[in-house]
Amino acid sequence: MTPVNFSFTTAFILGLSGLAFNRAHLLSALLCLEGMMMSLYVGLSMWGAQTGEANFFTTPILLLVFSACEAATGLALLVATTRSHGTTQTKALNLLQC
């Protein structure tokens, strides 16, 4: 495994472990998701550059577009829960209530 592959694999695993173990606030969960998406973007970009095929150059851009949409949706949910519940702590949120 090359050092570049090791670094973005480690970044993805750290983001995943941060999402699994540190769920106190909604913003920290969103930041971990963004870290995971950026490591996937770097991985797909490096994979497309290593293979040299033109078909793989559009995939990282498509992933970046979906990541931006996910970030916008997550921030909209963060603002909505802050306004409705008054806090961003995930323990205070009850998803079964309207």
Automatic annotation (TrEMBL):
Superkingdom, taxonomy of origin: Eukaryota
Protein name: NADH-ubiquinone oxidoreductase chain 4L
Compartments it resides in: Mitochondrion inner membrane; Mitochondrion membrane
Gene: ND4L
Membrane topology: Multi-pass membrane protein
Keywords: Electron transport, Membrane, Mitochondrion, Mitochondrion inner membrane, NAD, Respiratory chain, Translocase, Transmembrane, Transmembrane helix, Transport, Ubiquinone
Major subcellular site: mitochondrion
Entry similarity comment: Belongs to the complex I subunit 4L family.
Transmembrane segment boundaries: 6-22, 29-49, 61-81
The organism of origin for this protein: Dussumieria elopsoides
Keyword Transport annotated: yes
Reactions it catalyzes: a ubiquinone + NADH + 5 H(+)(in) = a ubiquinol + NAD(+) + 4 H(+)(out)
